[in-house]
Amino acid sequence: MQLPNLAYRFYERRLAKSLPADKLPHHIGVMVDGNRRWAKLAGTPTVAGHQAGADKILEFLDWCEDLNIKVVTLYMLSTDNLNREPGELRDLLEVIGSTLDRLGETNRVKVQQVGARDLLPAELAQKLAALESATANRGGVHVNVAIGYGGRREILDAIKSLLRDAAKDGRTLEQVTDQLCTDDIESYLYTKGQPDPDLVIRTSGEQRLSGFLTWQSAYSEFYFCEALWPDFRRVDFLRALRDFADRQRRFGT
Fold it and tell me: Quick one: which residues bind Mg(2+) (predicted)?
């Protein structure tokens, strides 16, 4: 058992050292998929899979900190997830709440919600607001927690807010439409002021976005990993970064 472990650690260290620092992503989006399947395969309750996934989030953020990744967006709860069976949803919300507490206790990350807070239970919404305030001036990794998030909902919210502000300023609909540009919409997104994700990772073998960062991912690179999220290893992450570093980004050209 020891020789395989030593070989694995050697390979992992070698892989990490081979990554060019100037070609690492500044912003990584992660679709933390596979918790339910992990629990089913393990023969444990679904909530155990969600908890294992939450534990992996804390571990993953340590890896990002070690590699000086500046921004991470974690897809933790979609608007569709809010329609899950009440018992599972309750357990999932409890795990998310506990995870937010743990993020706050690290004293090393800045946390920001991206999502529709009005869709969330009042207690969770209050917890998010308090955590954002408490971590606002912290350094370290900027962690966007996509909770109550849907890509179409984000764009819709952005347009509604833009039109409301235009009305307050006394601008007509014709004036708004004549002057409207992509920068205007971007300034109303949940992630306004942040760089778009350079790399989006999805675990569990699924190869679709499921509404994740629909606007922001237009020129992102994508990496799909077969591992279920709780089984996602540091070496899997390093392989994703190596793959990203080897790509030639074109940004639509």
Answer: 33, 221
Residue spans of alpha helices (H) in 117-172: 122-135, 151-168
Question: What's the distance, Cα to Cα, between the start and end of the chain in Å?
Answer: 50
Measured CA to CA, the distance from residue 162 to residue 185 in angstroms comes to: 7
Quote the pTM value.
0.94
pLDDT of residue 1: 46
| 196 is annotated as an active-site residue | no
Domains of the chain: 23-150+196-242 (3.40.1180.10)
Binding annotation for substrate:
34-38, 50, 78-80, 84, 202, 208-210
Active site residue 118: no
Q: Which is it for the CA torsion 140, 138, 58, 143, positive or negative? A: negative
Annotated binding site for Mg(2+): 33, 221
C-alpha 209/C-alpha 248 separation (Å) is 21
Pick the catalytic residue from 62, 81, 165, 184.
81
Residue 144's DSSP bridge partners are 73, 112
Rounded Cα–Cα distance for residues 248 and 246 (Å): 7
Give residue-wise pLDDT tens across range 157-189: 999 999 999 999 999 999 999 999 999 999 999
Q: Residue range 143-153: average pLDDT?
A: 98
Q: Residue 190 has what pLDDT?
A: 98
